[in-house]
Amino acid sequence: MHSLIVGCGDTGVRVAARAVAAGDTVTGVVRSAQSAARVRAVGAHALVLDLDHDTLDLPACDRLFYFAPPQREGETDTRMRRVLSAMTGAPRFAVYISTSGVYGDCAGEWVDEDRPVNAESDRAKRRVDAEQQMLEFCSHACVLRAPGIYGPNRLPVQRVLDGTPILNDADGGFSNRIHIDDLAAIAWRVGTRVMPHRVYNASDGHPTGLGIYYDTLSHMLDVESPPRISWAEAEQRFSAMRLSFLRESRRLRNQRLLTDSGYVFSFADFRDGLAASLRAQAPLD
Can you tell me the distance from the alpha carbon of 159 to that of 4, in angstroms, rounded to the nearest whole number? Predict the structure, then answer.
């Protein structure tokens, strides 16, 4: 079996290691020599490409893992369109990691995969387009709608140490998350079998207010919790991108994923995930 991982970054390298261990021939598509070295370190082949501009000479594969984000502008994912057009044929299995942002703001309601998408930003619209492309390309493709991905070196440690304010609990909504190790394990699992459904919420299933997450991390770092600010002040201090995330509130259900895959989370409790991530975190400069 040949696994092709397009966008073989932090999540992709973890999937590549699993695929190599399973006996697959693995090719990871990356943008830089540094990323290529990480791919080779787990026993996979590395292919350095600019997905937007280079001629895409891609190997045939049995499993396609597509983890590359869309380009930064527009309402369609032209990057994915180039990649899929360059494929010699549809693989037996395909996995695309999308985002739960395709649901838009749900006012804190519980959300399962039957809820219609309601992309409110161009960023989310590009993801909806990418999902549709992948589902049309491969009859057994699975879309994983992931929320905030955390893990070693993917924590807001510096913000906490700097005392950067966060939105107060009254103005904030629910946040959802998944540890990167769980996300990679789920991606590999659904990429090795025909799943009963084609879209899954890849979340740990335990949404909380954002303040709880930051307070827990602060406690683990033995520093004061970040100060809270109102929405009006946040609009003056935060970037448009950060505000767009904060405007959306939903609680993701993951029962379909648990039932269909039988997966048992390593870090369903984000507190355990934070503790493990901090132990593995590279020291800050």
Answer: 36
**Is the per-residue pLDDT at 285 higher than 70?**
no
Structure tokens that stand for 110 in this block? 């519980």
Looking up tokens 């740990």 gives 204
Alpha-carbon gap, residue 152 to 159, rounded angstroms = 15
Q: How sure is the predictor about 284, in pLDDT bands with cuts at 50, 70 and 90?
A: low
How far from 226 is each of 169, 219, 248, CA to CA, in Å?
12, 11, 21
Mean pLDDT of 26-42: 98
What is the number of alpha carbons within 13 Å of residue 223 lying toward its C-beta?
14
| Residues in CB range of 219: below 8 A, 6 or more apart | 225
Q: How far apart are CA 275 and CA 281, in angstroms?
A: 10
pLDDT tens for each residue of 65-100: 999 999 999 999 999 999 999 998 899 999 999 999
Coil, strand or helix at 151:
coil
C-beta atoms surrounding 204 within 10 Å: 22
Please tell me the distance from the alpha carbon of residue 26 to that of residue 271, in angstroms, as a whole number. 33
d(CA 271, CA 53): 42
The three-class DSSP label of residue 237 is helix
Q: How far apart are CA 252 and CA 257, in angstroms?
A: 11
Cβ within 8 Å of residue 264, ≥6 positions away: none
Which residue is listed with tokens 């049309």? 136
Name the residue with tokens 């003056």.
236
Q: Please report the domains of the chain, with CATH numbers, ordered by start residue.
A: 69-152+177-207+250-267 (3.40.50.720)
CA distance 98 to 67: 8
Which residues sit opposite 4 in a β-bridge? 27, 64
